[in-house]
Task: structure prediction
Amino acid sequence: MPELISIARLFLPENIIFISTNGDYLKTKEDVQRLFDAGLTWMGVSHYDKKNEHLKDYVEFPTMVHTSLETLKINFYNRGGNIPMGCEYPVIFCNWIFGKGYINYKGDMIVCCSDYQYKTVIGNVMERSFIDLYNSEKYEFYRQKHTERNISGLPLCRDCNRIIKKEEWISSTTRLEIS
Result:
């Protein structure tokens, strides 16, 4: 992972590089230090269980933020249909596709952090630049469909319960008629 962060930092020197992790493979302070030395800007650690509690003691990393299970539960959703669970606070519009780029461990750009099965691979940053992939027709297609609130044909998004479906939103909205 430090190698991929170094490559990202080389090509994106001014960008924020963020990793969201459960911390299971971060066993020592040196493991964390290697990531930040490689160019990582922020790290979000989700504390689902007690396996990674030791990471809270590493106060020398001020941009490593910790989220408890109680806080995480507020934002739980089915991760694009990958996890059987409800969503307490769905959103009308998913803005993640407009302001973030997700690179998996193989260098594949995917449209969402919830794409655990890699249904939405845009391309690979080892073959095309991040900017080319982010501005590609395929990525733009996803953005356009989200702008139109027409996600029924998008494999990951249509199964996500974080987004209130257009049909549900329209039927629940009261229309004001002016006479």
In short: The CA atoms of residues 97 and 111 lie 6 Å apart. Strands lie at 18-21, 42-47, 64-68, 102-103, 108-110, 121-124.
